[in-house]
Amino acid sequence: MLASIRSVAGRRAPAATMCKRFNSTTTADGLVKTPFYDLHLELGATIVPYAGYAMPVLYKGQSHIESHNWVRSKAGIFDVSHMLQHKFSGPGTTEFLEKITPSDLKALAPFSSTLSVILNKNGGVVDDTIITKHGEDDFYVVTNAGCRDRDLAFIAEQLTEFGKGNVQRSTIEGGLLAFQGPQAAEVLQKMTRYDLNTLKFGHSAFVPILGLGEFHVARGGYTGEDGFEISIPDVAAANEIARALLEAQDYVRAIGLAARDSLRLEAGMCLYGHELSEEITPVDAGLTWVVGKSRRTPETATFNGAETVLAQIADKTKVPRVRRGITSTGPAARENMDVYTSDSKDIASGTKIGVVSSGSFSPTTKQNIGMAYVPRAYMKVGTDIKINVRGKLRPGKIAKLPFVEPKYFR
């Protein structure tokens, strides 16, 4: 029950516990274990390889749809420790981050965050990222696990090229939990003396939890629901906090990757390698808003690929394809399935116009949904299309994003 969560915010953990850090170990087949690996097994998780990590896709006694609906109605915890957490600091850090991203980080208030993209010299997306400003030239940055090696190599190369100041980058290892759903704030509030009502969407704070220490808590997430992402470098504290959350069993369940993907798709959120790649610009992806308005002049556009990106913003004809939502009938469309014009009679003679980037059945809206890249001429909501699903053209439509309106705490 919710009331049974240990409200021991005044208790402090022993100093030795506070200093522990997670040392990565691997499974027999070489997959990296997160700090919660043993907990996943205890909960009956089905473990799958994901970005080189052993990750839970489902848990015993829960179907994908049940897990998905639980997060929409109550609260779920997700192990996202595979994500790469960075700390950037030192003179020149803001200027450097504004070189590799198009965000206006100078104007970002302390302990506020922004979704951004790391860009290559052609304006293509190397990775998407959340950047949190802690202070002047002091940032916490989260990037994707699947891009870890490439991101680290790219950042190192860019730092060498930048050659200014004294920018320091380090990796924060340990646990990272996403706690998402309409009951998340009420449950987490029982574990801290910090007033979570003062923490709005897109903001963060170092929050005392269960007397185990102060941990970076960011209000936001990847589901469209209210929630938090909690960075817990200490492995013992990470597991104690996860288990404490799960004590509220009428409200909280552990949720795997399957539901995480369908939740983010309903929320219209991009997944790297699907909606984003080095060949796709933020303008192509419908993320023009990540380009700070103050960074759209020749004097301020110092970010990688600025010429290409600003040309697309100024002239829509330079954006040949756009990301759009889709709905369809029959079996759900999936990644890399081709999109055709509505008058196409068959695959052999039809006119192919685009490609599906992600697709699934939506447990919330009870329909097949997805995202696709299509020419601008076909971008209008309601436009009829057809999709090659399992060798047969199925009717579909261009749809408004997101499919489920966000419920952020603002």
TrEMBL record:
GO terms for molecular function: aminomethyltransferase activity; transaminase activity. Substrate binds at E229. It is found in: Mitochondrion. It comes from the Eukaryota. The keyword Mitochondrion applies. Residues 332-404 form the Aminomethyltransferase C-terminal domain. Pfam families: GCV_T, GCV_T_C. The glycine cleavage system catalyzes the degradation of glycine. Belongs to the GcvT family. This is Aminomethyltransferase. It comes from Magnusiomyces paraingens.
